[in-house]
């Protein structure tokens, strides 16, 4: 315990812990599913509610954060977190709606190039979206959706991805971090290999934005999508984001809507679409103002903390977590890649009793995350998890395993796992 306390005393990010609401005697390890509320996010949401109260419709152009340009202003501040130019990013939609927008815009199958490559470990919603775009173009997902196979059921090998870059593939769309195992894929290497074969590259950053820095523009990634409610702490269902490389900004949005218009002409009510410059063109409908507002507070914290410092502490926390588990609870199988460069912000543990163990952890004051069929995910988030918290989590988990406390619970998932 002394070592953990010393690390906490030296922690440059420790001051941010008090900015987040946390239940007393509870350790929250589920920030890779839904981040905690910060006092700044709460304050910004209340400010925007007050603006509605005071200004009514004039809130679109008046007040501290006018709604009409809120998305554009936020996008410029989010861009550094993903390594993009400000005009390549737009805070809009959700992951799935943004996948639909990007594929409807950028996926242009031909006779020779018609397939979309995904992986067999991807999040289901991404797969559903890809399948729907293939069907809309008269293609059979059984043949036009190529899946990279996993050798171990948890991770992907770079060479296996490269081997699937065949002549019929038009686009590859992969997660930056695999949601179950926490593996961080080599984005630059994948993009370079794909571009050498004329294949476009997209990534889902759901489990990496806010946990680690990115270099989307410099890596040449063609498009990306993400949410802000995990490590970015913007609240449940918070507005998502998209990135589209500037070389594609000449493309008309596949799903056009009036908020993709040139803002100077938007209220001309002309039936001729005047496309906005940059990623703003790929907005569709009216922004969800109250869903964006908390992000105004959340981004302030990241700007003060620095994403490099967040990543450094995250790696230290996950390293400590996995080392303590390996020493004290060998029955749990760590399936997250060992190398720092190969993992995101959480550790994934496999056990046949995973659902029961997660329920026991909650009763013991630790909030984990279960993913079917057998994965316990633990995410020590740099902004609000201390090194002492990690030590306590392992001690509580050890007691659950040693005393078989988990047997007091059923081994089936809750409605929201």
TrEMBL record:
GO biological process: anthranilate metabolic process; L-kynurenine catabolic process; L-tryptophan catabolic process to kynurenine; NAD+ biosynthetic process; quinolinate biosynthetic process
UniProt modified residues of type N6-(pyridoxal phosphate)lysine: 230
This protein's UniProt keywords: Hydrolase, Pyridine nucleotide biosynthesis, Pyridoxal phosphate
Example of a GO MF term: kynureninase activity
Domain of life of the native organism: Bacteria
SUPFAM superfamilies: PLP-dependent transferases
Binding site for pyridoxal 5'-phosphate: 95-96, 123-126, 204, 207, 229, 258, 286
Cofactor: pyridoxal 5'-phosphate
GO CC, alphabetical: cytoplasm
Signal peptide: none
Catalytic activity: 3-hydroxy-L-kynurenine + H2O = 3-hydroxyanthranilate + L-alanine + H(+); L-kynurenine + H2O = anthranilate + L-alanine + H(+)
Pathway: Amino-acid degradation; L-kynurenine degradation; L-alanine and anthranilate from L-kynurenine: step 1/1; Cofactor biosynthesis; NAD(+) biosynthesis; quinolinate from L-kynurenine: step 2/3
Top EC class for this record: hydrolase
EC number: 3.7.1.3
Function: Catalyzes the cleavage of L-kynurenine (L-Kyn) and L-3-hydroxykynurenine (L-3OHKyn) into anthranilic acid (AA) and 3-hydroxyanthranilic acid (3-OHAA), respectively.
Subunit structure: Homodimer.
Similarity-based family: Belongs to the kynureninase family.
HAMAP family: Kynureninase
UniProt protein name: Kynureninase
Species the sequence originates in: Planococcus koreensis
